[in-house]
Amino acid sequence: MIKNKNEIDQVIKKFIGKKGSLIPLLQEIQSIEKYLSKPMMRYVSEKTGIKIAQIYGVATFYTMFRLKPQGKHIIRVCQGTACHVSGANQILSRIKRDLNLEGENDTTEDKLFTVMEVACLGCCSLAPVIMINDDTHGNLKPDNISKILKKYN
Asked: Rounded to an integer, what distance in angstroms lies between the CA atom of residue 139 and that of residue 137?
């Protein structure tokens, strides 16, 4: 079932028939829906005539697209060289422990947080670094994590 069908139809109408418009089309849909579900990708395929394999290929290739629901707060854990050697893995482990995330699970059950590893946040002098939404937290120690997360509850 498509939640915002009328709004999605308007977005599709804006892009239909325009060459090279799949990425901006999917970006706009994701901004409305917060992620690209399989039913949504099928719906876009039906409405645009673009093969589902092509839509899925684009959605899975580009890291900007999310294929499952995301939390209210996105935690980006830098894994760049400076952060990695400064303890990024310990920071990530502490975040996952504090949020009760196990295995491949990256979003909390209450959908409050989603944790993702990123290649670089560009804050090497603050290593190790995380970003929660648009807030940067640097020079981290595992013991700092609980206090930081509490600000976003």
From this structure: 7
